[in-house]
Design brief:
Order of helices and strands: HEEHEHEHEEEEEEHHEEHHEEHEHE
CATH superfamily: CNF1/YfiH-like putative cysteine hydrolases
Structural class: alpha+beta
Shape: globular
Largest sheet: 6 strands, mixed
Radius of gyration: 18 Å
Strand content: 15-25%
Number of helices: 10
CATH class: Alpha Beta
Length: 301
Protein backbone atom coordinates (compact mmCIF):
# COMPACT_ATOMS: atom_id res chain seq x y z
CA UNK A 1 0.00 0.00 0.00
CA UNK A 2 1.11 3.55 -0.62
CA UNK A 3 1.44 5.55 2.59
CA UNK A 4 1.41 9.30 3.07
CA UNK A 5 1.26 10.03 -0.65
CA UNK A 6 -0.96 12.47 -2.55
CA UNK A 7 -3.77 11.13 -4.75
CA UNK A 8 -2.66 9.26 -7.83
CA UNK A 9 -4.30 7.58 -10.78
CA UNK A 10 -4.53 4.38 -8.74
CA UNK A 11 -6.62 5.99 -5.99
CA UNK A 12 -8.82 7.71 -8.57
CA UNK A 13 -9.41 4.34 -10.24
CA UNK A 14 -10.21 2.75 -6.89
CA UNK A 15 -12.68 5.54 -6.12
CA UNK A 16 -14.40 4.91 -9.44
CA UNK A 17 -14.47 1.16 -8.78
CA UNK A 18 -16.09 1.87 -5.41
CA UNK A 19 -18.94 3.60 -7.20
CA UNK A 20 -17.77 6.95 -5.89
CA UNK A 21 -16.00 8.64 -8.82
CA UNK A 22 -16.85 12.16 -7.65
CA UNK A 23 -15.07 11.76 -4.32
CA UNK A 24 -11.64 13.29 -4.75
CA UNK A 25 -8.89 13.29 -2.13
CA UNK A 26 -7.51 16.79 -2.43
CA UNK A 27 -5.01 16.81 0.41
CA UNK A 28 -2.02 14.86 1.61
CA UNK A 29 -2.63 13.22 4.97
CA UNK A 30 0.03 15.33 6.67
CA UNK A 31 -1.97 18.42 5.71
CA UNK A 32 -5.26 17.34 7.31
CA UNK A 33 -6.48 20.13 9.53
CA UNK A 34 -9.44 21.58 11.35
CA UNK A 35 -12.29 19.17 10.56
CA UNK A 36 -13.63 16.58 12.94
CA UNK A 37 -12.49 13.19 11.75
CA UNK A 38 -9.44 14.67 10.02
CA UNK A 39 -5.89 14.90 11.33
CA UNK A 40 -4.19 17.86 12.93
CA UNK A 41 -0.52 18.39 12.12
CA UNK A 42 1.16 18.80 15.50
CA UNK A 43 3.81 16.31 16.56
CA UNK A 44 3.09 13.23 18.66
CA UNK A 45 4.58 12.64 22.08
CA UNK A 46 5.36 8.94 22.37
CA UNK A 47 7.24 6.98 25.00
CA UNK A 48 10.50 8.22 23.49
CA UNK A 49 9.51 11.86 23.29
CA UNK A 50 8.41 13.74 20.20
CA UNK A 51 7.51 11.47 17.28
CA UNK A 52 7.26 12.45 13.64
CA UNK A 53 3.62 11.95 12.61
CA UNK A 54 4.58 10.77 9.13
CA UNK A 55 6.68 8.03 10.72
CA UNK A 56 4.08 7.12 13.34
CA UNK A 57 0.86 6.90 11.30
CA UNK A 58 0.30 5.26 7.93
CA UNK A 59 -2.96 5.47 6.04
CA UNK A 60 -4.79 2.81 4.06
CA UNK A 61 -5.23 4.81 0.87
CA UNK A 62 -7.18 2.09 -0.92
CA UNK A 63 -9.94 2.50 1.67
CA UNK A 64 -9.72 6.27 1.94
CA UNK A 65 -9.96 6.70 -1.84
CA UNK A 66 -13.54 5.46 -1.70
CA UNK A 67 -15.21 8.07 0.50
CA UNK A 68 -15.13 10.21 3.65
CA UNK A 69 -13.42 7.64 5.84
CA UNK A 70 -10.13 7.47 7.75
CA UNK A 71 -8.24 4.15 7.94
CA UNK A 72 -4.76 3.86 9.40
CA UNK A 73 -2.27 2.00 11.55
CA UNK A 74 0.55 3.17 13.78
CA UNK A 75 4.13 1.99 13.48
CA UNK A 76 6.73 0.99 16.06
CA UNK A 77 7.53 4.72 16.33
CA UNK A 78 4.33 5.11 18.37
CA UNK A 79 3.46 1.94 20.27
CA UNK A 80 2.06 3.26 23.58
CA UNK A 81 -1.06 1.08 23.25
CA UNK A 82 -1.87 -1.47 25.92
CA UNK A 83 -3.29 -4.88 24.96
CA UNK A 84 -6.08 -6.27 27.15
CA UNK A 85 -5.08 -3.93 29.95
CA UNK A 86 -6.12 -0.48 31.10
CA UNK A 87 -5.63 1.94 28.24
CA UNK A 88 -2.82 4.47 28.34
CA UNK A 89 -5.22 7.41 28.29
CA UNK A 90 -2.50 9.92 27.43
CA UNK A 91 -1.72 8.16 24.15
CA UNK A 92 -5.40 8.04 23.20
CA UNK A 93 -5.80 11.71 24.08
CA UNK A 94 -2.92 12.48 21.70
CA UNK A 95 -4.54 10.34 19.02
CA UNK A 96 -7.86 12.05 19.58
CA UNK A 97 -6.34 15.48 19.14
CA UNK A 98 -4.99 14.48 15.73
CA UNK A 99 -8.36 13.19 14.58
CA UNK A 100 -10.26 16.02 16.27
CA UNK A 101 -12.11 13.66 18.59
CA UNK A 102 -11.95 12.77 22.29
CA UNK A 103 -11.22 9.42 23.99
CA UNK A 104 -14.97 9.14 24.58
CA UNK A 105 -15.38 8.81 20.81
CA UNK A 106 -12.95 5.89 20.52
CA UNK A 107 -13.83 2.21 21.01
CA UNK A 108 -11.17 -0.46 21.46
CA UNK A 109 -12.03 -4.16 21.35
CA UNK A 110 -11.20 -6.35 24.38
CA UNK A 111 -9.23 -8.65 22.06
CA UNK A 112 -9.80 -12.18 23.31
CA UNK A 113 -9.40 -14.03 19.99
CA UNK A 114 -13.09 -14.71 19.43
CA UNK A 115 -15.02 -14.78 16.16
CA UNK A 116 -17.74 -12.45 17.45
CA UNK A 117 -18.63 -9.03 16.02
CA UNK A 118 -20.33 -6.18 17.88
CA UNK A 119 -22.47 -3.35 16.51
CA UNK A 120 -21.17 -0.03 17.84
CA UNK A 121 -23.31 3.01 18.57
CA UNK A 122 -22.36 6.53 19.66
CA UNK A 123 -23.12 5.73 23.28
CA UNK A 124 -20.52 2.94 23.19
CA UNK A 125 -17.77 5.52 22.67
CA UNK A 126 -15.05 5.20 25.30
CA UNK A 127 -15.39 1.42 25.70
CA UNK A 128 -11.92 -0.01 26.27
CA UNK A 129 -10.51 3.50 26.69
CA UNK A 130 -12.11 5.36 29.57
CA UNK A 131 -13.98 2.31 30.89
CA UNK A 132 -13.68 -1.44 30.67
CA UNK A 133 -14.80 -2.86 27.34
CA UNK A 134 -17.55 -5.43 27.12
CA UNK A 135 -16.12 -8.92 26.71
CA UNK A 136 -16.50 -11.48 23.96
CA UNK A 137 -15.88 -9.79 20.60
CA UNK A 138 -12.94 -9.10 18.29
CA UNK A 139 -14.76 -7.27 15.51
CA UNK A 140 -16.85 -4.10 15.33
CA UNK A 141 -19.19 -2.54 12.78
CA UNK A 142 -20.94 0.82 12.71
CA UNK A 143 -22.61 3.40 10.49
CA UNK A 144 -22.12 6.18 13.05
CA UNK A 145 -19.90 9.08 12.03
CA UNK A 146 -17.10 10.35 14.24
CA UNK A 147 -16.59 7.14 16.22
CA UNK A 148 -13.15 5.56 15.87
CA UNK A 149 -13.07 1.74 15.90
CA UNK A 150 -9.68 0.46 17.11
CA UNK A 151 -7.81 -2.77 17.59
CA UNK A 152 -4.19 -3.42 18.55
CA UNK A 153 -1.94 -5.93 16.81
CA UNK A 154 1.59 -7.29 16.79
CA UNK A 155 1.37 -10.02 14.08
CA UNK A 156 -2.39 -10.71 13.92
CA UNK A 157 -4.30 -9.43 10.89
CA UNK A 158 -6.26 -6.16 11.08
CA UNK A 159 -9.14 -6.21 8.59
CA UNK A 160 -10.68 -2.91 7.49
CA UNK A 161 -14.12 -2.89 5.84
CA UNK A 162 -15.91 0.03 4.19
CA UNK A 163 -19.15 0.24 2.21
CA UNK A 164 -19.20 3.62 0.41
CA UNK A 165 -22.82 3.07 -0.69
CA UNK A 166 -24.35 2.58 2.77
CA UNK A 167 -21.50 4.47 4.48
CA UNK A 168 -20.78 1.73 7.00
CA UNK A 169 -17.47 0.42 8.32
CA UNK A 170 -16.00 -2.56 10.11
CA UNK A 171 -12.76 -3.20 12.03
CA UNK A 172 -11.67 -6.75 12.78
CA UNK A 173 -8.81 -8.22 14.79
CA UNK A 174 -8.14 -11.64 13.27
CA UNK A 175 -5.67 -14.05 14.81
CA UNK A 176 -5.72 -17.70 13.79
CA UNK A 177 -8.65 -18.49 16.11
CA UNK A 178 -10.78 -15.66 14.78
CA UNK A 179 -9.88 -16.53 11.21
CA UNK A 180 -10.74 -20.21 11.73
CA UNK A 181 -14.07 -19.07 13.19
CA UNK A 182 -14.81 -16.87 10.13
CA UNK A 183 -14.76 -13.55 11.97
CA UNK A 184 -14.24 -11.56 8.75
CA UNK A 185 -17.31 -13.21 7.23
CA UNK A 186 -19.30 -12.51 10.37
CA UNK A 187 -18.41 -8.82 10.07
CA UNK A 188 -19.61 -8.73 6.46
CA UNK A 189 -22.81 -10.54 7.44
CA UNK A 190 -23.32 -8.04 10.25
CA UNK A 191 -22.98 -5.13 7.83
CA UNK A 192 -25.51 -6.80 5.54
CA UNK A 193 -28.03 -7.47 8.29
CA UNK A 194 -27.64 -4.21 10.22
CA UNK A 195 -27.07 -1.65 7.48
CA UNK A 196 -28.33 -3.27 4.28
CA UNK A 197 -24.85 -3.48 2.77
CA UNK A 198 -24.23 -5.57 -0.31
CA UNK A 199 -20.98 -7.56 -0.14
CA UNK A 200 -20.05 -6.55 -3.66
CA UNK A 201 -20.05 -2.89 -2.58
CA UNK A 202 -17.69 -3.45 0.36
CA UNK A 203 -14.01 -2.58 0.05
CA UNK A 204 -11.64 -4.51 2.32
CA UNK A 205 -8.02 -4.07 3.29
CA UNK A 206 -5.75 -6.35 5.27
CA UNK A 207 -3.26 -4.34 7.28
CA UNK A 208 0.33 -5.35 8.03
CA UNK A 209 0.65 -8.72 9.74
CA UNK A 210 2.94 -11.73 9.91
CA UNK A 211 3.24 -13.29 6.46
CA UNK A 212 2.85 -16.87 5.32
CA UNK A 213 6.62 -17.32 5.08
CA UNK A 214 7.20 -16.42 8.75
CA UNK A 215 4.19 -17.70 10.70
CA UNK A 216 5.31 -21.09 12.00
CA UNK A 217 2.62 -23.16 13.75
CA UNK A 218 2.02 -26.71 14.95
CA UNK A 219 0.11 -29.39 13.10
CA UNK A 220 -2.76 -29.12 15.57
CA UNK A 221 -3.89 -25.85 13.98
CA UNK A 222 -4.84 -27.69 10.81
CA UNK A 223 -7.67 -29.34 12.75
CA UNK A 224 -8.82 -25.91 13.88
CA UNK A 225 -9.27 -24.83 10.27
CA UNK A 226 -10.66 -28.14 8.98
CA UNK A 227 -14.29 -27.27 9.72
CA UNK A 228 -14.52 -23.97 7.81
CA UNK A 229 -11.49 -24.10 5.49
CA UNK A 230 -11.15 -27.76 4.57
CA UNK A 231 -11.05 -26.98 0.85
CA UNK A 232 -7.92 -24.80 1.17
CA UNK A 233 -5.99 -26.22 4.12
CA UNK A 234 -3.34 -27.59 1.74
CA UNK A 235 -2.95 -24.08 0.33
CA UNK A 236 -2.72 -22.09 3.55
CA UNK A 237 -0.64 -24.66 5.48
CA UNK A 238 2.81 -25.47 4.08
CA UNK A 239 4.88 -28.22 5.78
CA UNK A 240 8.42 -27.57 6.99
CA UNK A 241 11.24 -30.05 7.41
CA UNK A 242 11.11 -29.65 11.20
CA UNK A 243 7.57 -31.02 11.37
CA UNK A 244 6.01 -27.57 11.78
CA UNK A 245 3.87 -25.70 9.26
CA UNK A 246 3.77 -22.21 7.81
CA UNK A 247 0.28 -20.69 8.00
CA UNK A 248 -0.77 -18.02 5.50
CA UNK A 249 -3.42 -16.11 7.47
CA UNK A 250 -3.86 -13.30 4.90
CA UNK A 251 -4.63 -15.89 2.20
CA UNK A 252 -7.21 -17.54 4.44
CA UNK A 253 -8.88 -14.21 5.24
CA UNK A 254 -8.94 -13.19 1.58
CA UNK A 255 -10.62 -16.51 0.76
CA UNK A 256 -13.10 -15.94 3.58
CA UNK A 257 -14.02 -12.46 2.32
CA UNK A 258 -14.54 -13.72 -1.22
CA UNK A 259 -16.72 -16.51 0.15
CA UNK A 260 -18.74 -13.82 1.93
CA UNK A 261 -19.43 -12.18 -1.43
CA UNK A 262 -16.74 -9.48 -1.74
CA UNK A 263 -15.25 -8.79 -5.14
CA UNK A 264 -11.65 -9.98 -5.38
CA UNK A 265 -10.57 -6.69 -6.97
CA UNK A 266 -11.81 -4.79 -3.91
CA UNK A 267 -9.70 -6.69 -1.40
CA UNK A 268 -6.31 -5.09 -0.78
CA UNK A 269 -3.41 -6.25 1.37
CA UNK A 270 -0.36 -4.50 2.77
CA UNK A 271 2.68 -6.48 1.55
CA UNK A 272 4.77 -5.62 4.61
CA UNK A 273 5.36 -8.45 7.11
CA UNK A 274 5.42 -7.40 10.76
CA UNK A 275 7.97 -10.09 11.63
CA UNK A 276 10.36 -8.93 8.91
CA UNK A 277 9.92 -5.16 9.31
CA UNK A 278 11.67 -3.32 12.12
CA UNK A 279 9.26 -0.43 11.56
CA UNK A 280 6.36 -2.51 12.86
CA UNK A 281 5.56 -4.43 16.03
CA UNK A 282 5.92 -8.21 16.15
CA UNK A 283 5.27 -10.40 19.17
CA UNK A 284 6.95 -13.37 17.50
CA UNK A 285 10.12 -11.39 16.84
CA UNK A 286 10.46 -9.28 19.98
CA UNK A 287 8.23 -10.91 22.65
CA UNK A 288 7.49 -7.44 23.99
CA UNK A 289 4.03 -7.42 25.63
CA UNK A 290 3.90 -3.61 25.58
CA UNK A 291 4.70 -3.10 21.87
CA UNK A 292 1.55 -2.98 19.78
CA UNK A 293 0.35 -1.21 16.64
CA UNK A 294 -2.98 0.57 16.82
CA UNK A 295 -5.24 0.00 13.82
CA UNK A 296 -8.36 2.07 13.27
CA UNK A 297 -11.14 3.19 10.96
CA UNK A 298 -13.66 6.02 11.28
CA UNK A 299 -16.37 7.65 9.20
CA UNK A 300 -15.60 11.37 8.96
CA UNK A 301 -18.24 13.90 9.87
Amino acid sequence: MKRGLPPCEKTKRIAADCGNPLFVISRKYELFTGTKGMMDTKGIKGDKGQVNMKEAIRHITEIEACGPVQAFYTTAAWNDWQCNEKADLKAYEELGRHFMITPSEIVRIPQTHTAEVRKIKKEDGGDGIIRKAKEGYDGMITDEKGILLCTVEADCVPVYLYDPVKNAIGMVHSGWRGCAGKIAEHAVEGMQNRYGCRPEDIVAALGPCICGSCYEVGEELIDGFAGNFSEITSVIFKPKENGKYLLDLPAAIRYSLIRAGLTEGKIFADPVCTFESGDLCSWRRDHDPAARMLTGIMLSE
